[in-house]
Each structure stands twice: as structure tokens, then as C-alpha cells.
Amino acid sequence: MQRAFNLAVAQVGGIQPGEDRKAVVARLISLLEASHRRGASFVVYPELTLTTFFPRYWRDDCSALDSYFEREMPNAEVQPLFDRAKALGVGFYLGYAELTPDGRHFNTSILVDSTGAIRGKYRKVHLPGHADRVEDVPAQHLEKRYFEVGDLGFGVFEVDGIRVGMCLCNDRRWPEVYRVLALQGADLVVLGYNTPMEVPGWREEPHAKMETHLLSLRAGAYQNAVWVAAAGKSGDEDGAHLIGGSAVVAPSGEIVARARSEGDEVVVADVDLDLSEPYRQSVFNFAAHRRPENYSLIVDRVGRGDPVPVDFS
Ligand code: CDT
Asked: Among the options 70, 98, 124, 237, which is catalytic?
């Protein structure tokens, strides 16, 4: 890819529990083709793109949900997406549920280059929600029950000549994620999400739900001088409502493209990676201005605690 290229975010409307992989992959291919027609050389898909957002369901036996997981990638059902993308010379980011050969469950994403080769993998670190059943709620949010915390850290991968970092949904709200990726020279951070309106224990006004989503993307982009592209699964899913707002954000923190619907929708942005440079050479020149000797609390402490004494005598 050139330093300037067209980047597509493929928002995917709700996927109902009865919708099989074949039907979903056909929708993803249509979004891919629409992106290509609009000149995009890379497409960002959502988190857990291939199925409905199944962490909303309680099952006594977790293995009852194994049919939502992929045992290999690509597999026969997803191969047509890889084939079509390779034929068009388009790379992509895809989120899916991963079941490893030794029986581990992860919320995972991959980066695929324009030749169809997988260039990077990420397993979600910040798993939101709860592990126990919550009574009297319209939907559960059981990511802590169904997934292990990711074990691959936050990697940056070379994809068609561009340094790309990944994260997944709730990760986008944590500033450490972008900083760890930016410290490795990421030019672009890509992520997928499923943000339900109703999450047990987390109430926000509808406008605030969208605002905090966009605020997180914008802050991450600006404070780290990177491009950020986020694709959501959106709209109605089995009676639950997921926010839209798939977007591309420039290193200035400005939203340069944003989905308007809550359905399948391609958003294309004209991305110039060199727009990061003025920020990297001035206000966010990390080498010149960061003072990590003052940030040790960030890794030494997890939860909020008491103030650390300061000797100012
Ligand atoms: N999928 C995901 O991580 N969703 C969360 C919502 C739940 S947070 C309790 C998000 O941050 O959008």
C-alpha cells in the first residue's frame, strides 16, 4: 500500500442467531466488493463478525456455544472471503471467536494482506461484562465467562508495507492500548466492536453511548498521532440493539468518515499516513517529551488506590 490510500470500514448490520456463516460471508463479500469499487485497498470488519453477539446468552454448559467459534482460519466457510479479497487485491481485518486445538476460547482478530496471507493475530485483552448470570436483564454480557484474556499482547504487524496495530471493542476505551501500539510505530490502529445499548451494570444515555465511543477513538488517534479505523456490528440482533457509528479518525482527532445507518454500510476514507508526522515531530514527539520514570504507577497498580506520598519539602 502507498502512504496514501483509500481505507474502508465495513459496518455489518445485525446478525440473527439463525443466520449461517454462508449467508454472513456473502454479506461480507458484498461489502468488500463495494469497498473495492470505491477504491479501497484495505477493509476493516467488526468484532465477532461471523455470528450474532453470542455473549448475550447464558448457557450452563459453555461448550453449548462452541458452534459460534472457528476452529481454524480460514476454514471452508470463510475461505470465499479470503479468495475474493485476494482476487481484488484487498487486505482486511476480521474479528471472530477462536477455539484453539487445545480447547482455549479467545475473542480474536487477524490482519490479512492483499495476497490473502494472515500477517498478524490479536486476542482481546480487556474483556468487559461479567462471568456470572445476572437476573432480570434483557441480555447478559458474558465475555468474562466465554473467553480467556488474550495472551498475545498488543502487536504491530507489517501489512502491505504499513504498520498496523489491532484491538477489539472494549480495548478502544483504554488509553494504554493506543500508546503501546504507537510506541511500536503503528501508523494505523484497526478495531471491531459490538456495543449493546443494554449492558448489565453499565447505564448510559443513548447519546452518551455514541459520544463515549467516538471520544475514545478520537482521543486514541490524537494523543498517539495515529489513524484509527473502527467497524461495528450494529442495529437489531435478536432483540438487542447495538450502536452504529463506524468511523475513521485522523491523527488530528477529527472524524473523517462515519457511518450514517445501523445496517450494512461501507464508509471509505482517503487516508494519508504522513498526516501523523507533524504531530510526531512536535507535541507528541515521544522521544523528546515522554517521561516514563513518572508513569511507573501505570504498571505497578491495577485498581484505584491511595495517593502516593510526595516529598515537597
Ligand atoms: N464487545 C464489547 O467489548 N463491548 C463493550 C460493551 C460492554 S462494556 C460493559 C464496549 O466497550 O463497547
From this structure: 124
